[in-house]
Amino acid sequence: MAEVAKKHKFILNANYEQALDYCFQAAQKIRKSKLLDQDKLNNKLRFQTGTGFRSFGEIIEFSVNQISATQTEIEVSSRALVDFVYDWGKNKDNIAVLEKFFYSIPQTTKVNNVLASTPSVSDVENSKSNDSPSFVSNIFLSLNWFFGSSFLFLAILMFLFGNSEAQADRVAIMLFVMSILLLPPLKPYVYGFCRDEHVWKIKAGLLLATFLLFVFASTF
Questions:
Q1: Domain boundary residue, one of 116, 131, 146
Q2: What is the pTM for the complete model shown?
Q3: Residues 118 and 164 in one domain
Q4: By CB atoms within 10 Å of each CB, which of 10, 53, 67, 219 scores lowest?
């Protein structure tokens, strides 16, 4: 299961004001980001991204801590706007974009408890391309949204406007269950007990069982 939040630290050869300006520039690299608030007391900036296909939005936070007159530590984090929603790799993508920007600043150093060597921009780009969802993954995501939403819509219609027969109620319940199995935001609750590589097998088995019950409920 992917994490719902990502966090990294950097050390810049810049004073506090320059580092703050870099944070604003970095945030502009994230699509549809806008400033939420600037906490001058705790030296923090918070930005919110817009709703997208994979996410309802994220909160991106910059914590700025001046180490010396010429060095400043910046901690960046990205988390889902709605905490329980599976992030589909969006927070990882956000951090990758921010990494690319900060590593373009001369002599930027990444911090992971100890100082680490600075990777090149090409390394960050390669890492981002490897971690980002593939075209096939996006196709499956689209299908999950389409069929999950369609089944949910049909289930609601049958509950509201269907006849009062028990058969119609059973079909509506089956459609509702199938929508729960498919809709991406519900993944942490439905499949949270298993590893990511096993999700598709369990999903296929549950959908097949539900479909057979659906056929049985609609014919008997």
A1: 131
A2: 0.53
A3: no
A4: 219
- CA nearest 123: which of 99, 156, 107? 99
Token pair listed for 173: 């319940």
Q: Domain count of the chain? A: 2
Q: How far apart are CA 183 and CA 42, in angstroms?
A: 38
Residue 155 token pair: 């289930």
12, 105 Cβ separation under 8 angstroms: yes
pLDDT digits (tens, 9 = 90+) for 10-68: 888 889 999 999 999 999 998 888 998 888 888 999 999 887 766 778 889 999 999 98
HEC assignment per residue over the chain: CCCCEEEEEEEECCCHHHHHHHHHHHHCCCCCCEEEEEECCCCEEEEECCCCCCCCCEEEEEEEEECCCCCEEEEEEEEECCCCCCCCCHHHHHHHHHHHHHHCCCCCEEEECEECCCCCHHHHHHHHHHHCCCHHHHHHHHHHHHHHHHHHHHHHHHHHHCCCCHHHHHHHHHHHHHHHHHCHHHHHHHCCCCCHHHHHHHHHHHHHHHHHHHHHHHHC
